[in-house]
Amino acid sequence: MTMKRRTLLILFALLVGPRATIAPAAQQTGSLRLYIARHGETDWNVQHKLQGMTDIPLNENGRRQAAALAESLKGVRLDAIYSSTLSRSRVTAETVAASMSMKVQSLAGLRERNYGHFQGGSDGDPEYVKRENVWDDRLDDGESLNQLLTRTRDSLAQIRREHPAGNVLIVAHRITNQMILRALLDLTPEQTVKITQDNDEVYLVEFDPGATPRLWKLIREKNLGDL
């Protein structure tokens, strides 16, 4: 079913206080709730450098954002937490896990896109900008969006096999999360590349038996303009 044929309900969750109780446990209803977060900020994010597979750690602000994510999810009874194998994703997820006495499962398939020889360069490089959204372009020695979509779908399939119902947190990366949302919501390529998720933004995709998926976005005080 294409996005044009599907009625997608987009709801906005307002969070301006220090804590929210979001979504009760879904096991009893057979519902699946996937919380999709991006890792906290790194110095390369600030410098607009393409990180990709390069393992850049969180900076101080990124660690604060990870702590804020943990605080935001305190009211959620998570059944599992997944991250990529890159430290900026894993440490963000581990910050949430530590607040809930949980463990993180890291999947290589959730890593960021391999940008090839553009990795470490500016995300404003004219050659990169010209090629970044060409879905079969491997960026010479890197990875195409189609390849990234395939491994992202494989990771999602594993997560959904292991947790067909319940509340699951996935902490991944900017482009990887675009692929996650495309796979979950049957987005077109054009819709997918328009998704912009900041380092402290969280989406929730709900799957209830017999219903179309519902997409929620966490709105923080600085993002009130999104309403």
Polypeptide structure, described:
The protein is an alpha/beta fold. The chain has one domain (9-226): 3-Layer(aba) Sandwich (Rossmann fold). Helices cover 31% and strands 17% of the residues. It has seven helices and seven strands, in the order ββααβαβααβααββ. A seven-stranded mixed sheet has the order 1-7-6-2-5-3-4. Strand 6 and strand 7 form a beta hairpin. Helix 2 packs across helix 3 (87-100) and helix 5 packs across helix 6 (174-185). It is globular and about 50 Å long. The two termini are 28 Å apart.
- The average pLDDT score comes to 89
What is the ordering of alpha helices and beta strands?
A: EEHHEHEHHEHHEE
> Would you identify the CATH architecture?
3-Layer(aba) Sandwich
Number of helices: 7
CA-based gyration radius: 17 Å
Structural class: alpha/beta
Fold topology:
Layout: E1 9-14, E2 32-38, H1 43-46, H2 60-72, E3 80-83, H3 87-100, E4 104-106, H4 126-131, H5 145-162, E5 166-172, H6 174-185, H7 189-192, E6 202-207, E7 214-219
Helix pairs in contact: 2-3, 5-6
Keywords, please?
globular, Rossmann fold, 227 residues
In short:
The chain has one domain: Rossmann fold (3-Layer(aba) Sandwich).
